[in-house]
Design goal:
single chain, alpha/beta, 3 domains, 6-stranded mixed β-sheet
Length: about 400
């Protein structure tokens, strides 16, 4: 593959921060061929002193099995050294399967698209997210790495790993009993894994208890509503502020001085959440008298009162009618877009998942079987078999 036109296959689109890498109809049979191409990538990228979004064209490209390890290693180096994100177009079935397998084991995003327009749209979303959240975003804001969880002789999770980028909505899906809630319980510190790591903002927090995880900025809702049914809406949401309160028991009892000022400040924050969730009319109503959908909204409000960096939602729309689901989906999107909150979501309604998620992880019997964009996951035959039992 002595191709004098390698440099012509690397096209910089400065205005949109994109470097186009054209592998179309190339064949990589030897390590020398792989090194030749990636040496040119290094030679062209290094002098720019910039990072780029990579648009990689694989149409008709053949990568022989014996050079895949080197090809992947050189590609990973380029992404780490020069990349802001990568999308891939036109991969053959063999190449697509190889990329997805490596993505699952090495925890990067496959981002494989059928055509150029889809890939460019995904790049646009990456750029938009970066503009909103800043340029110094760590790729793996939250990383779940090789998690194993056992209950006696029962294996609840086996080698589950994925990452969540700052500011995105990631969904975890799978059939009943797949281990979805167990993953949230491990992330939130309710369960201690027998093996593996949970890394948040670059630090290992695997063995922290739940209350310490909450102080790091994690909040969650539960599959079964866990509210104080005899307390009003506003008082239930106020319980989410308790860990931020600093006054002592005596001052609280006397409701005097600092304790009074502190509670007023926290109630002002809770009132903003009530306005945001459009539940002003039920502020003083005991939650036990509220319909199911509104109780779910109050539980979301209590989680938001903790001012989370990462919001863990365990089936927030379970048992809701269509109108209630639409309202909840709107609030989740607003929390993500207006407050910049990173969200990890478990949900059985696939329409909702595909509409609001930027990334989807699929579990089955405690094992990760797929991950990717909603469109990738929807078309994955392994996912279809897990849900539908197709052979």
């Amino acid at each position: 593959m002595s191709d004098p036109g390698i440099s012509e296959r690397l096209i910089f689109h400065d205005a949109i921060e994109v470097m186009e890498v054209d592998f179309s109809y190339m064949t990589f049979e030897t390590e020398a061929q792989v090194n030749e191409f990636y040496d040119e990538v290094d030679r062209r990228c290094a002098p720019t002193n910039r990072r780029w979004y990579f648009l990689v064209i694989y149409t008709g490209c053949i990568i022989e099995p014996e050079v895949w390890d080197l090809f992947a290693a050189r590609g990973k180096h380029a992404n780490i050294a020069y990349g802001l994100g990568t999308v891939r177009v036109g991969a053959t079935p063999a190449t697509r399967d190889a990329i997805r397998h490596r993505a699952q084991t090495e925890m990067f995003r496959a981002n494989i698209f059928e055509n150029r327009d889809q890939a460019l749209l995904a790049l646009g979303e990456m750029r938009k997210r970066r503009e909103v959240l800043g340029t110094d975003i760590a790729e793996a804001y939250l990383r779940v790495d090789d998690i194993h969880l056992n209950f006696g002789g029962v294996k609840a999770l086996t080698g589950v790993g994925f990452q969540v980028n700052r500011g995105e909505i990631s969904s975890i899906i799978g059939p009943n009993g797949a281990g979805k809630s167990s993953v949230l319980n491990v992330i939130s510190g309710f369960y201690r894994p027998s093996r593996g790591e949970i890394v948040f903002e670059g630090k290992d927090r695997t063995h922290l208890p739940a209350h310490e995880v909450a102080r790091l900025g994690f909040a969650r809702t539960f599959q079964n509503i866990a509210l104080f049914k005899g307390m009003t809406t506003i008082d239930n949401i106020m319980t989410g502020r308790s860990w931020k309160m600093k006054s002592n028991v005596l001052a609280d009892a006397l409701y005097w001085g600092f304790a009074q000022k502190e509670e007023i400040k926290h109630r002002e924050h809770v009132e903003k959440i009530i306005d945001f969730l459009e539940i002003e009319a039920i502020r003083k109503v005991p939650v036990g008298r509220l319909p199911y959908g509104l109780q779910k909204r109050v539980e979301l409000g209590r989680a938001l009162a903790m001012e989370p960096k990462v919001l863990l939602l365990d089936e927030p729309m379970a048992g809701m009618n269509l109108e209630e689901k639409e309202d909840m989906a709107r609030f989740i999107l607003d929390v993500n877009e207006e407050w910049g909150t990173t969200i990890v979501l478990i949900e059985h309604d696939m329409g909702v998942v595909m509409d609001i998620s930027s990334h989807v992880v699929v579990l089955d019997h405690g094992v990760k079987i797929a991950e990717g964009t909603p469109s990738e996951v929807r078309a994955d035959p392994v996912v279809m078999r897990a849900y539908l039992g197709q052979g």
